[in-house]
Each structure stands twice: as C-alpha cells, then as structure tokens.
C-alpha cells in the first residue's frame, strides 16, 4: 500500500476536532453575547477564579514533584519497579468521579478513617476528624488531583527519560557533583520540557473540571466550573448567557496558563 | 459481538414508522384505543430527579408494568437537578429539533414548570384524554396551581407532599417543633444543625420556612413578587440565619451542598436534625438501614410547606402516545396505591380516593404507615408555596447575604 499524505491521514481527527470542539466553542461564544457584563459583575467571580487557580496550581505542583520522583525511582530499577509502573497505568484508568467518591468514603468526616479513628478512641467522634473535604482550602480536591495526576506526570517523565540512559548524570557524578547537584543541573533540565507539558495538561484539567469540586468542595467558595454550572442550571433563563460567558472565561484562563507553560517548555 | 451489532441495527430499522407520535394534535383527534395502539412496542424516556432509591425503584416498577401490558420500554434517566431536563428541551428548541426531543416525560413542579411554560416548551391540552384523569380533582386549588402558576392542562399531578423535620428519638428526644424553637435549639446545641446551601431544592425550602417566620406568616408573600415587601422582610431573615451561623456545623464555615449529603451526616451523627419535602423518605431510609429505627419525622406547630408535584410532556417529545399511556398508568388506582405503600415509596396519592371503587378505597385506608413517618393529621397546617419569582429572589438573596457573606 502506498503511503497516504499526512494531511489525508489527519483529516478524520481534524474534522472531529473542528466540528465538535470548534462548533462547541462557536456556540458558547454566540450564546454568551449579552452575558459578559453580568458575568464580570458576578460577585462570586473573583473568589471562584482565585479558588480554581489555587486548587489547579497546588495540585499540579504537587503532582509534578511526586510524579518526577516516581519516574526517577522507576528508572533506577530494582525490586517493585514493574509493579510501580503498572500502578501508575492503573490509576490513569480510574475515572475522576470514581476517585473522588472513593476519597470521600476514605477521608471525609463520615468516612472510613474518621470512623476508624473514633472507634479506636483516637478522637472523640467522627466529627472531630480534621475536615479534609468540603473544607475552605479545598484540600480534598487538591489531594484528589494530586493522586490522579502524579502517575500521569510520572509516565510522561519516564517517556522523556527513555533512551537517554543515565550517561549524563553518571558523567556529572564522576566529575564530583553531589547527587543533588547532578539532579538539579543535569536531570531536571533534561526533564523540564516533559514536566512543563504534563503540567500544562494537568493544570488545564484541574482548572476546568466540574465533578471533583462538586463532590469534594464546600458551599462558600465555588470552583469556577461550579459557578458556571450553577448559573447554567438556574431556573431563570436570563442567567444562561452569563453562564456561557463564564464558561468561555474558564476556557480563556486555562488556555492562557497552558500556553505559558507550553511556551516555557520550548 | 458483530452479530449483536447487526441485530441491533436491524431492530432499529424494523421499528414501525408509526412509533413516531410527535404530532400531539393529530394524536388527540383519535380515541384512546387508537392512542394505545400507536404506543404499543414503543419507548418513553422519563427524566426525573434520581436522588432517592424509593422513587427510582417505583418508576422501574412502572416500567415493568408498561412492558408487560403495552410492550413499552421505559427508560428512566436520573437527574441531580430537574433544571438539567429543562436545559435539554431548551437547547433542542434552539437547535430546531421540534419533533425529535430526548425527553418524553419529566417529573416537575414550581420554577421549572414556570420556565418551560414561559418558553412555550410543553405539550398541553391532553389531560382530558386520559381515562384515569377522571380520578383527579382538576378544580382543587392545590392541583390547579403549581406554586401559584395555573397548570392549564400542561401537566398531570403525581403526588402530594408536605415538608417535615426528622430526629432520632433515642439521641435527640426533644427536637424543636417550631422555627423560633429551632433558632433557640441551635444556639443551645452548637455544631449539631446545618442545612444544604441553596440552590439545593430542600435547602431553599428550609430557608423559606425561616423567611415565612421573619414575615410573620406567608400571607404577606402571596401573589406576584413584591420588591417592597421583599426588601422589608429579607434583612430580618438574613439576620436570623447569620446569627445562627456560628452555631451551625463547622461553625457555618461551609454548608452541605445537597440534601443527600445532609442525610449522610445525620446518619453518621455529625448533626442531629434532618428535614425533607417527603416524610415517607424517612421511613424508607430507616427500612434500608441509612437511618436508625428510632428516627421520627414531625411537623411544626406553625405548619410546614406543602405542594403537589407533577409529570409533564415537552412539546417536542417524539413518543407522545407512549407518554400518554404512561401518564394514564401513573394515575391508575393500582399505581397510586403501589406508590402509597411505605416499603415502595409512601407518597400521598394525587387522585381522589373517594372517587374509587369501595374495595380500592379500603386498600388505601389499610395502607400501613411506618413508625418513622409522621401521620398527615399530626403534621400541622399546610403552608402554601410561593410563586417562582419569590423563590428565586429568596435563594439568590441567601447566596449573596448569608452563603458568601
């Protein structure tokens, strides 16, 4: 079979992207006309933007640190590395909503740890367990995204490390660099583009996704996607353009941050 | 695998063309037998709030009956908020899908009904075609008006409910039995009460009880929205709720975001009081082990909110014949009796029991009531619901003045 030109091979994917993604974007922008003024005047907007930046930023930073460490440990070889790699792949297949509900069963004040600690007499009652879900800082949300994204970062970093071998680092060590120095000046720069790219994807997801803050967040500070959802499902039809403008704003902010990270990765 | 795929495609292609009954006017021009004939072998997509096992199980039972009696497939589509169904119909209208909507039936009342009516998005005028409609007292104010909006033949009543509170009689023997008593109780029992943050449906209803208390009763709030009255009452209500906040669960730093979450917290002894727009739910939750046997629901001396809930058909439903047959079954004495059984749902009937045959009347009279469910006669006065504009103003006012203050 003769090779088809790349443009033709890409065409099906591009059509889907243009129609579904582009079409959705156009419909959102068209529907948001007249909604921008009430959206920008929405009293809960600044809090929602800051809260979403906080949960997405903190969870991405933690996932990058943990994922990078995991990748280096797996590459170093030794017992259990195959299992660790399989676990990373397994976590990727767990849907976010399932992971968040699992976390709720585990660490909420109605959860397994709270009941266990109360049953063992470590705390007076389940309600004395520290508030990790529905908490003002979004710790439960950050915990969830860190747990989900760290293996993703690890696999991304492993792919970048593959084929390079430990040669450069060994050279640095043989020339007298401490392990920390070798990591900081050799390994990390090698990994930097891969980490920034993985970070851009992790950040954009955590910033724009709705189900995890819905399940693990509190009522006072809403993540931006939840504010969009509340306005979109308000019984008052006049709130819909505002909801679409807020949705467009969400996309704009996460695309902006992702663009900055991808630019730095070049 | 491939055979199965082909079989599915073949089945879809072989479906009778008559199954498409999007034209409601043509359908209503025929007699009931003809409607049933066209409904046979078809399907109906029933969108409804899916947060309670009782209502879900009951609708699945209806689905089995429809399959057995009419060969109709009922697809139950669960929603976390009925507004999602409203949005689907609205989006379809905007996209010009006037005869191929996804929603055939929707469980609805209040502001969502108002919104669909406003957008002219409901099919109307079929209620007289339903044989079992004869059991409904269409003239009764509580049925003819849905949260103050006339139903005008655009929806069919399904159940009647009255809001109730609930407590564990073993843990909290003396619960507060009025809103002023509740306010004092919260102060005396810090951390043991909270309510779901609006826009949760039940949380909004709780806030309305406090609003009625601040207004000195519902009378001043009846009728169309009145900004002057609102501005006079609202600050008092927000003051009460804000003063309560430091004594709430987690000192009011956050509220539960759904009634389901509050149910879990009461079950886990994190807080002591529960409330629901459907007291039968407390009996069902005790039966399935969520709540202890000693849980009891109760009314307030000053009364609690009451309403009727309905089922409606969107204008663009492609299965209107099957929707009519389903509605007729929902109104049948057998289905309403099944729904009234405590182990099924325990929901009060929307039909007039005295219009039924004596044997049926007796069956309704003999319906057992679990100890957890308050007797209707002990529930206190029924307070009328407000018109949607009031409800929205109160919910948004809470978010701005209490929830995000």
Automatic annotation (TrEMBL), chain A:
Positions of the ABC transmembrane type-1 domain: 49-261
TM regions (residue ranges): 53-74, 86-107, 244-262
Localisation per UniProt entry: Cell inner membrane; Cell membrane
Main location: membrane
Membrane topology: Multi-pass membrane protein
Pfam families linked: BPD_transp_1
InterPro entries tied to this protein: MetI-like, MetI-like_sf
Entry's Gene Ontology cellular component terms: plasma membrane
GO biological process assignments: transmembrane transport
Domain of life of the source: Bacteria
Keyword terms, alphabetized: Cell inner membrane, Cell membrane, Membrane, Transmembrane, Transmembrane helix, Transport
Family to which this protein belongs: Belongs to the binding-protein-dependent transport system permease family.
Name used for this protein in its record: Putative spermidine/putrescine transport system permease protein
Organism: Pseudoroseicyclus aestuarii
From TrEMBL, chain B:
Protein name: Putative spermidine/putrescine transport system substrate-binding protein
Record's signal peptide: 1-19
Organism: Pseudoroseicyclus aestuarii
One Pfam family cited in the UniProt record for this chain: SBP_bac_8
Keywords of the record: Signal
Keyword Signal assigned: yes
InterPro entries: SBP, YnjB
């Amino acid at each position: 079979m003769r090779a088809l030109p790349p443009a033709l091979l890409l065409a099906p994917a591009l059509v889907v992207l243009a129609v579904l993604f582009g079409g959705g974007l156009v419909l959102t922008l068209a529907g948001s006309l007249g909604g921008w003024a009430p959206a920008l005047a929405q009293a809960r907007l600044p809090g929602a933007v800051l809260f979403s930046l906080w949960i997405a930023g903190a969870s991405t930073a933690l996932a990058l640190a943990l994922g990078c460490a995991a990748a280096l440990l797996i590459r170093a070889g030794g017992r259990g590395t195959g299992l660790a790699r399989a676990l990373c792949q397994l976590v990727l297949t767990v849907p976010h909503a399932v992971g968040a509900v699992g976390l709720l069963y585990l660490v909420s004040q109605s959860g397994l740890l709270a009941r266990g600690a109360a049953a063992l007499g470590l705390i007076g009652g389940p309600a004395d367990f520290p508030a990790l879900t529905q908490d003002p800082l979004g710790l439960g949300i950050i915990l969830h995204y860190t747990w989900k994204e760290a293996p993703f970062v690890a696999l991304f970093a492993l792919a970048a490390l593959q084929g390079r071998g430990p040669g450069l680092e060994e050279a640095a060590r043989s020339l007298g660099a401490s392990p920390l120095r070798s990591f900081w000046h050799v390994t990390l720069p090698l990994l930097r583009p891969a980490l920034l790219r993985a970070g851009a994807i992790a950040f954009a997801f955590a910033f724009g996704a709705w189900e995890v803050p819905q399940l693990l967040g509190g009522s006072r500070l809403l993540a931006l996607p939840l504010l969009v959802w509340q306005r979109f499902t308000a019984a008052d039809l006049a709130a819909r353009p505002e909801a679409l403008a807020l949705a467009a704003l969400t996309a704009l902010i996460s695309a902006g941050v992702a663009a900055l990270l991808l630019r730095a990765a070049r | 695998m491939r055979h199965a795929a082909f079989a599915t495609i073949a089945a879809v292609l072989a479906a009778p063309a008559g199954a498409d009954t999007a034209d409601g006017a043509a359908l209503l021009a025929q007699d009931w037998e003809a409607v049933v004939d066209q409904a046979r072998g078809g399907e109906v997509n029933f969108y409804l709030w899916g947060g309670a096992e009782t209502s879900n199980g009951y609708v699945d039972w209806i689905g089995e009956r429809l399959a057995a009696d009419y060969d109709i497939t009922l697809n139950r589509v669960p929603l976390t908020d009925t507004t999602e169904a409203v949005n689907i119909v609205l989006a379809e209208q905007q996209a010009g899908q006037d005869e191929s909507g996804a929603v055939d039936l929707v469980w609805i009342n209040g502001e969502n009904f108002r919104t669909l009516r406003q957008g002219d998005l409901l099919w109307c005028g079929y209620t007289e075609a339903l044989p079992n409609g004869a059991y409904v007292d269409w003239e009764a104010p509580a049925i003819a008006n849905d949260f103050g909006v006339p139903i005008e033949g655009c929806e069919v009543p399904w159940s009647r409910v009255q809001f109730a509170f609930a407590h564990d009689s073993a843990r909290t023997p003396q619960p507060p039995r009025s809103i002023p008593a509740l306010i004092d109780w919260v102060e005396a029992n810090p951390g043991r009460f909270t309510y779901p943050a609006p826009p949760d449906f039940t949380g909004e209803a709780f806030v309305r009880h406090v609003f009625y208390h601040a207004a000195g009763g519902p009378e001043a709030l009846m009728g169309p929205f009145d900004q002057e009255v609102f501005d006079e009452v609202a600050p008092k209500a927000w003051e009460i709720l804000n003063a309560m906040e430091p004594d709430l669960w987690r000192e009011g730093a956050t509220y539960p975001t759904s009634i389901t979450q509050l149910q879990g917290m009461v079950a886990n002894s994190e807080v002591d009081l529960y409330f629901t727009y459907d007291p039968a739910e407390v009996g069902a939750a005790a039966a399935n082990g969520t709540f202890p046997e000693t849980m009891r629901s109760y009314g307030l001396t000053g009364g609690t909110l009451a309403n009727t809930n309905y089922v409606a058909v969107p204008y663009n439903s492609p299965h209107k014949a099957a929707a009519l047959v389903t509605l007729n079954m929902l109104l049948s004495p057998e289905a309403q009796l099944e729904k009234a059984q405590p182990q099924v749902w325990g929901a009060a009937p929307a039909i007039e029991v005295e219009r039924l045959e004596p044997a049926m009347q007796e069956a309704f009279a003999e319906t057992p009531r679990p100890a957890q469910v308050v007797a209707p006669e002990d529930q206190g006065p029924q307070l009328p619901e407000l018109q949607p504009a009031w409800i929205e103003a109160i919910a948004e006012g809470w978010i701005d003045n209490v929830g995000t203050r």
